[in-house]
Amino acid sequence: MSDRADVGEPEAVPAKRRQILVGARRTFGELGFERASVDLIAARAGVSKATVYHHFEDKQALFVACALEEAEAMRAGLRACLDQPAGDVEQGLQRIGEKVMRVLLSPAVVGLHRHAIAEAGRFPEVGRTIFDRGPRLTQELIAAHLERWDRSGALRIDDPRSAAVQFVALCQGDLLARARLAMLEYPADEQVRETVSRAVRTFVRAYRP
Fold this sequence. Notes:
Blueprint: H1 15-35, H2 38-45, H3 49-55, H4 59-82, H5 89-104, H6 107-119, H7 124-133, H8 135-152, H9 160-172, H10 175-180, H11 189-207
């Protein structure tokens, strides 16, 4: 299984392909992988079925591409943070945590992840691909931020990658589980701010010199 086009750089995605991805995200989010048909995706995207298959090998490749595009949007925001001075630890972590959680809790991402989990038993390679190019790369970017604060002496972190995993887990709290179970009320901005703020305080207490 391989997507015929690069799904890692949304800014390079042709307009027609992006049109298909928009229709696919909506369809997968509402119906899940099994019930979503390529015919319906094509109709919602306003393209022919042949056009869908011109850009994507099969429905599975299209599903993965949707998930990876959302992951890339989050990583782009984190990379932009890296271009800025390290600055205040608490403010920086708050900004990073909120950025991550707003993507993870968006209805499109929640729907895609919910169905990716449901299909992981039948298509384990889908789960691996999404994890490797989604959470794993996001953790590496957060670890890069933590390394800067470690070098500046603001934090003391022996294993930035493990610390990044811990930080994301703290930021999630019970928000992600509630979202996946359709128990989270939207808009969730205030809940995200409060949960991330608590996560930052806990994290900084653990890693402050």
